[in-house]
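Researcher: Next entry: aspartyl aminopeptidase (Reticulomyxa filosa).
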Amino acid sequence: DLSVAGRVTVTGDKEEKESFHSRLARVDRPILRISNLAIHLNRGVNETGFQFNQETQTVPVLATEFAAQSNKTVTCFFFIKKKKKNLKTMNSSIVNIFAHFLHCDEIQFNESTKSPMNEDCHPMLLKLLAKELNVDPEQIHDFELYLYDTHKSCLGGALNEFIYSARLDNLMSCFVCLRALLRANSADSFASETNIRVLACFDNEEIGSNSNRGAASNLLLSS
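Model: Predicted structure:
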């Protein structure tokens, strides 16, 4: 179960339209899923392994296409207790199917917004980001977002001795090293230390560290 988090560049309100601000955003619920073909439709996967095209088969699914042929708004009402369903401005028969799985009072999907990012990003995602930041979609001008696993970290095992979590090899080591460096300021050996204590944390280790932010860059060599 995936969601998005990162940095979003937005403009100010009506009085500060010319000003730009960078804000951190995180949608704290699953909104994306990278689907896989069922095994009975891919019989040879056990012999050949899962072979996939990174460009076409790892694209996350955001939603079904409710109104592909129209720019009108689709408003779906679904009340579980009252068993009352009311579909307004219905643009596709598929809405009838998926309305049964909507556990919300009202959801509005629109095919377009006035945001400068409308050509590069689905308007539904723009509306989710705008709602998270409490701004209008038109105020979003750029973003740098990453997918992340929404599953929470936890302790496991019969004696709760294992940590079940993603990113343990990188983020946890950065955390403990930084914590040790901060604690070293009060150590007795710090007064007589002749070397410079430095913590260097790099990105992109999982792809070979060859990026401009990786450990194989020329940052330390040119410093």
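Model: Note for the record: Residues 67-111 have pLDDT under 50 and may be disordered.
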